[in-house]
Inverse folding.
C-alpha cells in the first residue's frame, strides 16, 4: 500500500522493491545503533568494518535501478509534452510521489540518483513509523477486543455500508471519529519516540525561568510526560480508545485539534506547528484502511493474555517483534 502510493503499482510489485525498502530501513537503524555505541573518533573506522554500510548501499542501488526507467520516462514526457505533463500532475488523482518529485524538482535535481535518493528517504520514513503505529494499534485492540471492536465495527458499517476498500475516500475516513480516536489514544501510550519537536538552537535563548539554551544545543520536548499528565488529559493512566471522540463531540470550538494528525500541548508526537511530520496524513490513511479491513475480516486475541510491553531503545518505543497475535476469520 505504501509502495503503490510512493512509486506506483508496477514498481512496488517488483520482487526487489519490498526487500530493498525493508532492508534499507533495518540496516539504517542498526547502523545508527552501532554508531551510538561507538566513540565519535572511532566511527569512521567502525564504518569500514560494519556490514550495514554495504547493505545500505546495496539497497540504494536496487531502488535506483527500479525507479530509473520511470524517472527517465517522466523527464522525457515533461520535456517533450510539457502541457500534457503538467495537466497530468495537476489533475490526476493517482499521481505518485515519484511523479510529484520529478515535477517539483529543479532540472538539475531531477536525475535518477537524486530522485532515487529522495524516494529511498520517503519510503524509509513511511515504512517504519507506519508499521509501528499499526502494530501498536492491533496490540491495543486485541488486548480488549470485545470492548473496542463492536463500536468500531458499527461505525465502519454506518459510514461505509457496502463500499469496498478500494472505494474508500478521505471523506469516508473523516467521519470515523472512533477509529481516529483509537489511533490517537494508542499513540499516546506508545509513541514512536519519548521525545518530540527535536530542534537545534541556531542562537542562544533565555527562558522565562532564567535557564539559557546555548547556541548549537539540541533540544526536545518531553512528549510522553506531557501526554500522560493530568494537566492535559483526564485519567491519563487509563487506556480509553474513544477518549478523543468524546472530547471532539463535546468541544465548543475547534474539535479538529483533537484529531489523530493534529497536535496540542498534550499531543506532540507528530511534532508541532509548520514543521509537523509531513507524512502523518498518509500514515493515518494507511493505518485506518488496514484496521478497517482487519476489523471487517477477523477477530483478534493476544496469545498469552495481557498487552506485551514495548521495547525501549534509547528514546525509541518499539513493539516486541517476537510477540504473536491470534487472528480468526469471521467467516470461518
Amino acid at each position: 500500500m505504501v509502495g503503490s502510493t510512493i512509486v506506483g503499482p508496477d514498481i512496488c510489485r517488483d520482487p526487489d522493491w519490498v526487500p530493498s525498502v525493508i532492508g534499507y530501513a533495518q540496516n539504517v537503524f542498526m547502523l545508527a545503533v552501532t554508531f551510538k555505541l561507538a566513540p565519535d573518533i572511532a566511527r569512521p573506522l567502525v564504518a569500514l568494518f560494519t556490514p550495514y554500510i554495504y547493505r545500505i548501499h546495496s539497497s540504494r542501488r536496487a531502488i535506483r535501478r527500479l525507479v530509473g526507467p520511470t524517472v527517465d520516462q517522466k523527464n522525457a514526457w515533461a520535456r517533450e509534452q510539457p502541457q500534457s505533463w503538467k495537466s497530468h500532475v495537476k489533475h490526476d488523482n493517482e499521481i505518485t510521489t515519484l511523479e510529484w518529485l520529478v515535477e517539483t524538482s529543479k532540472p538539475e535535481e531531477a536525475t535518477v540518483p537524486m530522485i532515487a535518493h529522495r524516494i529511498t528517504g520517503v519510503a524509509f520514513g513511511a515504512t517504519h513509523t507506519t508499521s509501528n503505529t499499526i502494530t501498536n494499534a492491533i496490540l491495543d485492540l486485541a488486548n480488549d477486543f470485545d470492548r473496542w471492536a463492536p463500536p468500531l465495527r458499527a461505525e465502519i458499517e454506518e459510514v461505509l455500508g457496502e463500499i469496498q476498500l478500494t472505494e474508500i475516500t478521505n471523506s469516508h475516513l473523516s467521519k470515523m471519529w472512533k477509529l481516529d480516536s483509537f489511533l490517537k489514544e494508542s499513540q499516546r501510550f506508545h509513541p514512536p519516540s519519548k521525545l518530540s519537536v527535536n530542534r537545534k538552537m541556531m542562537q542562544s535563548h533565555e527562558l522565562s525561568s532564567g535557564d539559557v539554551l546555548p547556541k548549537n544545543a539540541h533540544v526536545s520536548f518531553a512528549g510522553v510526560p506531557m501526554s500522560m499528565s493530568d494537566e492535559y488529559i483526564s485519567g491519563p493512566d487509563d487506556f480509553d480508545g474513544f477518549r478523543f471522540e468524546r472530547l471532539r463531540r463535546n468541544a465548543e470550538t475547534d474539535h479538529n485539534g483533537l484529531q489523530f494528525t493534529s497536535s496540542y500541548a498534550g499531543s506532540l508526537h507528530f511534532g508541532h506547528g509548520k514543521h509537523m511530520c509531513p507524512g502523518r496524513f498518509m500514515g493515518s490513511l494507511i493505518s485506518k484502511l488496514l484496521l478497517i479491513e482487519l476489523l471487517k475480516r477477523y477477530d483478534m486475541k493476544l496469545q498469552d493474555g495481557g498487552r506485551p510491553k514495548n521495547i525501549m531503545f534509547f528514546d525509541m518505543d518499539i513493539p516486541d517483534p517476537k510477540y504473536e497475535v491470534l487472528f480468526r476469520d469471521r467467516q470461518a
Summary: The longest strand covers residues 196-200.
